[in-house]
């Protein structure tokens, strides 16, 4: 039994990790989340009553509150997922990205260093700080090649630059202070509980509501998709068995153009809801994202060979599960699209978006 402090546990990936940990292990989980527009406790309803689950509504930038949480809960490990994560928002307003992703990670590292420094020798060497990051730090690929762990950093958006900064901070705290860290860089996730401003859930919900499906540019940008539960399993494996100071790339081996993804969603929607068919007629080409990275693709051979990880879902099976989940869980959808999200959407996109 381990005590794992998870930052950003009310978000898309963090909540998937927590659901797995509570349902499949005896570990204790302390979820530290500020509950921004992207954090939703409804995503944790199935595990919230567990005696092994604790929630702390705290900003990771608040050093005092974070120190209090470490003191009270005495965790054996940290999985750091809290971040601002949407590239479009980072273009419209980078400030919160710099604050949470850079200053927040710095603040957390300092709190952890203080806490870890006072642990007994045994606890000290078993402690882990797992930094969860993105493949976007590597920039954009041409038609060929893959991101490997030794690919040079070339972040292109304010979001990816802030995540790259946080990766460098984590590396430095290991190199200089000896903090036992592991870092993972993952490709695009999809699945249930994904906030509907990202491509896949946005397209599913707009298709359901007969609204335009806004494809940026020509729709030929390529992403490497991974089902969120496969990512969560990979993160748990790296926390348990990853080598200290190492980086592991995680990806699904599912390269698709955005247009391919949207057409596949439309095909599934046509089966579920024939009265709306053909949903592909809703596809609308809109202005491209500034600085839009063309292609991401991960070489996941290191985590496969060292730790024996491989994804369980194919893109088709994962996407079918995902569309089915959004179709069945309208209460979750209604809850997340209320409040601040609505205001932001109106201001930045007008009614081109989900409403
Ligand atoms: P998300 O946007 O769904 O959730 C982020 C969570 O962090 C939210 O619950 C939010 O309330 C919380 N948070 C934000 N600022 C905070 C702060 N200052 N203090 C405390 N909590 C705060 O994000 P996600 O998609 O689940 O991503 C989780 C992590 O995984 C991020 O670090 C992201 O960079 C990384 N990642 C995401 C993907 C992806 O495809 N979604 C892929 C690779 C890596
Ligand atoms: O690669 C990992 C990253 O994947 C994570 O680090 C980020 O947190 C996560 O948001 C995601 O970033 P992307 O920018 O790739 O995801 P998004 O869903 O915003 O966009 C996916 C692709 O779809 C991208 O090429 C832009 C395009 N797109 C997106 C939206 C929201 C559209 O064509 N139309 C849209 O409405």
TrEMBL record:
Pfam families membership: GDP_Man_Dehyd
Keyword terms: Lyase, NAD
Enzyme Commission number(s) of this protein: 4.2.1.46
Highest taxon above the source species: Bacteria
Catalytic activity, reaction form: dTDP-alpha-D-glucose = dTDP-4-dehydro-6-deoxy-alpha-D-glucose + H2O
Domain NAD(P)-binding: 5-322
Gene Ontology BP term (one): nucleotide-sugar metabolic process
Coiled coil: none
Cofactor (UniProt): NAD(+)
SUPFAM superfamilies tied to this protein: NAD(P)-binding Rossmann-fold domains (SSF51735)
UniProt entry tagged with the keyword NAD: yes
GO molecular function, one term: dTDP-glucose 4,6-dehydratase activity
InterPro entries hit by this protein: dTDP_Gluc_deHydtase, NAD(P)-bd_dom, NAD(P)-bd_dom_sf
Presence of the UniProt keyword Lyase in the record: yes
Family: Belongs to the NAD(P)-dependent epimerase/dehydratase family. dTDP-glucose dehydratase subfamily.
Listed name of the protein: dTDP-glucose 4,6-dehydratase
Species this protein is from: Candidatus Nitrotoga fabula
Originating gene: rfbB
